[in-house]
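Feature request, filed as a ticket because there's no other form

It would be nice if the structure record came with a short human-readable summary line next to the tokens. Right now we just get the raw output. Example of a typical job, pasted below so the devs can see what we mean:
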Amino acid sequence: MPDIPMVPGTSSAPFLTGSAGCSAGKGSARPKPAARHRVALVAGRCLVSQADTVLALIRARRRDDVVELVRSVARDASLAVAVTLLADVQRKVGDRWQQNEFTVADEHAATAIVDLALTAACFEAERHPNTSEGTVVVACAEEEWHVMPARMFAEQLRVAGWEVVFLGASTPAEHLQRFLAADPPTAVAVSCTVPLYLPGTRRAVTASHAAGVPVLAGGAAFGKAPDRAAAIGADAWASTPDGAITTLTGWASNRPPLAAPIVDDAPALAAGAERPPLVERAMSTLASRFPPLAHYTGWQRARTREDLDCILRFVEASLLTGDDSIVTDFAPWLTSILAARGLPDGIVPLGIGVLRDCLPEGLGEADRLLAAMNAPN
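Raw output as currently delivered:
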């Protein structure tokens, strides 16, 4: 549930450096079988070069070499170190997608190898005896398809001795409630990577509470503090496995009173109800202010519509949590994404301005947030 994922700090952990394929690339010679499995433990070594090595192996489609390297990390160091390595690789994959160096297909292919390597690492890791006397259900929020952070966290919990039920990506809140009611666990851990899906996370929290189960929230969507988690009614927030386990251990012996959201969801719901017609009005207005739109293909127009919709959904996430930084952080990120794909720098401010002009009455807070997105840094 990490930010990718909830992992401990790496400053003092022992790390591994491998000799397998450091210069891997297209046309590079595959190592001899004996060399492929040489991995040396180096205490205190930064994982950056190791993550670069793994990414190079992934790009060269050397799946088995990645699996062997990561398995060695788990065996000779720990699963936590292996997870830290794979999380760093996933971040690099995401960065390359953002910079338009990776397609979605490249990203999916890389994640598939990371997933396989994680599975192999889990079989190498020694499982501690179960001392928690508890079960944790780990799930992703509705619409949240970034499943890897949740899975990494689930496997670390399992190795730490917990019974874990992993529900995977985008679990509908109603189905989650029915699942929990049938056999209530100690806790639910809900993972959310993108703030876009915080409304779905709030529904998951509500569903879990309806089944009488406390919720631990985590993931990059919550930022670096507990405020967003508290805003949507989660009972606790954690950014590391150790922090999560400490909380869960306390809950196993003394279940907490269930929390309530501290931010009213009415403004976010009102904005969400207006979103579909607002996007259509904005598309019409944008056509008059951005002439190149007339020459866009159907696919390009659909992506533009999605971008406008996405901006508004980030506004809704800010309204839901009372946190303006969700939108002010999003605007430069979206600008960088579109710039890497050849769009002009001013396209995001133009789109935000169009949305403001098309807002219906009664959405003053949404207008304020859109204005904040366009404010100079």
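Something like this underneath would help us a lot:
Residues 2-45 have pLDDT under 50 and may be disordered.
The chain is about 55% helix and 10% strand.
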